[in-house]
TrEMBL record:
The lineage of its organism: Eukaryota, Metazoa, Chordata, Craniata, Vertebrata. It comes from the Eukaryota. Gene3D superfamilies: Immunoglobulins. It comes from Rostratula benghalensis (greater painted-snipe). GO terms for cellular component: external side of plasma membrane. Transmembrane segments: none annotated. The keyword Transmembrane helix applies. The keyword Transmembrane applies. This is IL5RA protein. Residues 104-202 form the Type I cytokine receptor cytokine-binding domain.
Length: 319
């Protein structure tokens, strides 16, 4: 049996960093006794292979350096597998002068009290970008795309930072991608666009643990706290508990996966305590939260003046 390759293979940019691959079954193909499927092989920017029974496929990838893929027909009959030749198609790199793209892009999301997600990105202008370059940032989340309206500029008046106080990012999703697209304009050069994909959970700056309470019970220090503001349940969080003995200057950081903690301490000493949070068990880690406000417990040694406490504290804080 002859296996014919699919026809009319086309690539269409259907959204930022998204390609629609589309093809037609070959009309010469004898289909009667076979299951017809298609092998899809993404060649660049990142190699990946999959197969599908459909005649289209939507693929997410950064496109600034172009995109290429090939497909072939796959006939399956019992254990028999027959393959056609590949048909290949590509998208050219987005145009622009060398080194005019932004570099060092980094983005952070936060979940707000009202359960929306804010987004903050920073970048550096490309080494080859003229001084009059103006950069524009867009984010795409699923089918929603928006341009930044709130930029911060560098000393040459070029945008290098953008803030979205509210986005369409769903705070309850796991492993969804945030697409960032930054292009620009200049009188003297074509600015090459730049795209990057971020996992929404991996760039979340976790909120601070709430209602931290610490007290002493005989020789034990007891601490309890609430999970940070987040739609994820409390089992998804881990904590770092920083305990600094202000008398000796020694500092301990303890990893804790519950919302409370008991530790035997020397109750003749005074301690400072801080807690920070990250999510981990149910979803990938983000950026550690800031440390909670310092809480002091234990005996206030009369010999220690305020200055000495401050000194020891700063010693403690050199991790
Ligand atoms: C379909 O399969 C049957 C039995 O397996 C075979 O006799 C027949 O020739 C096949 N038809 C075609 C068009 O290949
Ligand atoms: C930008 O990124 C490069 C390569 O990753 C790194 O070497 C450089 O230190 C970064 N620059 C700044 C200012 O962060
Ligand atoms: C930047 O990209 C957006 C989204 O694709 C597009 O609408 C806009 O025209 C581009 N601007 C420039 C200066 O290329
Ligand atoms: C924290 O404590 C305040 C006041 O005691 C209380 O109203 C609030 O519900 C607590 N928050 C959480 C998350 O338990």
């Amino acid at each position: 049996v002859q296996v014919f390759p699919p026809l009319n293979f086309t690539l269409t940019v259907s959204a930022l960093a998204q390609v629609l691959l589309h093809w037609k079954p070959n009309p010469n193909q004898e289909e009667k006794n076979y299951t017809v499927r298609y092998d899809v092989k993404i060649l660049s920017p990142v190699a990946e292979e999959y197969d599908t029974a459909k005649t289209h496929s939507i693929y997410t990838a950064v496109l600034h350096n172009g995109f290429s893929a090939q497909i072939r027909t796959l006939l399956l009959h019992n254990n028999l597998q027959m393959k056609s030749d590949w048909v290949k198609e590509k998208l050219l790199p987005l145009p622009g002068a060398p080194e005019t793209s932004v570099t060092n892009l980094s983005c952070v999301t936060r979940i707000t009290i009202s359960s929306t997600v804010s987004l903050h990105c920073t970048w550096l202008p490309g080494q080859g970008a003229p001084e009059d370059t103006e950069y524009f940032l867009f984010y795409r989340y699923e089918t929603y795309t928006e341009e930044c309206q709130d930029y911060t500029k560098d000393k040459w008046n070029r945008n290098t930072e953008c803030r979205f106080l509210v986005t369409h990012i769903d705070p309850e999703e796991i492993d969804n991608l945030i697409v960032i697209h930054i292009n620009g304009s200049s009188k003297y050069a074509t600015i090459k666009p730049f795209q990057q994909l971020f996992n929404q959970n991996a760039i979340e700056k976790v909120n601070v643990p709430r209602n931290v309470t610490v007290f002493l019970e005989q020789n034990d220090l007891l601490a309890t706290w609430e999970k940070p503001i987040s739609p994820f349940r409390k089992e998804c969080f881990e904590y770092e508990f920083s305990l600094c003995n202000l008398k000796s200057g020694s500092k301990q950081i303890l990893k804790i996966s519950s919302n409370n903690f008991r530790l035997q301490i020397d109750v003749t000493c005074r301690y400072s305590i801080q807690i920070r949070a990250n999510h981990h068990i149910c979803l990938r880690r983000g950026f550690w939260s800031d440390w909670s406000e310092i809480i002091y417990v234990g005996k206030n040694d009369v010999l220690l003046s305020y200055n000495i406490i401050t000194l020891l504290e700063s010693r403690c804080c050199l991790i």
